[in-house]
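User: Sequence in, structure out. Go.
Assistant: Echoing your sequence, followed by the structure tokens.
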Amino acid sequence: MPKIKNIKLIILSIIAVIILFIATCIVSTIFWVKPNIEIIFTINAGQGTREIAANLQEKKAISSSFIFSTLVYANHWYLQDGVYKITPEQNLISIAKMIHDGRVQEYVITIPEGWRVTQIDNLLTQKKIIQKGEFTKIAQIKEGYLFPDTYRLALNATPQEIMDLMLANFDKKTLGLNLKPQDIILASIVEREAKLDSDRSKIAGLYLNRLNIGMKLDADPTIQYAKGSWAPIAKSDYANYQSPYNTYLHAGLPPTAICNPGLKSIEAVLNPDKNNYIYFFNNSDGSAVFSQTYEEHLTKLEHKK
């Protein structure tokens, strides 16, 4: 019996603590005095509900991150990234609803390294910034030069303005590098092939070795680009998929870049590793395994991780 009484006492104590905590949150919310100023609040892609709630409380936009998070979870709301204007009249519920609805003052978009124009178009369409296909129509010829980065866009930003912003950012980030078109094309292949930063310059050196001896690049991403998808290709595509981008059929570089590379891949092409590698493959962990001869390559493939 004493043990049962102890258990009941513990349970009652826990319940009391929970009730006290909730009551404290409610009271603090009711009597909390919000600053009489407008707050500009930015949510970046990838931020979770708890981080957003904590940041809102830190900015003094809400009184309780706990109540905010509980409200969002209870309603199964998705908090959309962007730049929001929070007014003194808004309460915790209206702020959460505004962010869920995506009523932004500015859009915040992040373009990852290695995305192609059509992927950027899809993101802009998903965010309801443009109509599908509008960006691809004008930006396709600029593949490779749309610098991957985080951008803040006005609500009425046009596809042309978005493209110009990315091109200007490319010029800014690559200022003084004296880039040639072939550098960007090769960098785009390195971007799609390299899984680890430490392998970028080695892969760049390997492809330059192939070009220097007149060997075809045999780069899978070039076929993937031609097919319009980064999904794995079939071995039959090597010989059968007809496209000037198929580097298993055509020697030299493809006609244009196949994606928009980041600065690390561009720098890897400008400062390639001086090696004698001709072949490589990627382990399941993304690390690249290099070889100087085809026989060595086949042997290493047998021990692929």
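User: And one key feature?
Assistant: Residues 106-173 form one domain.
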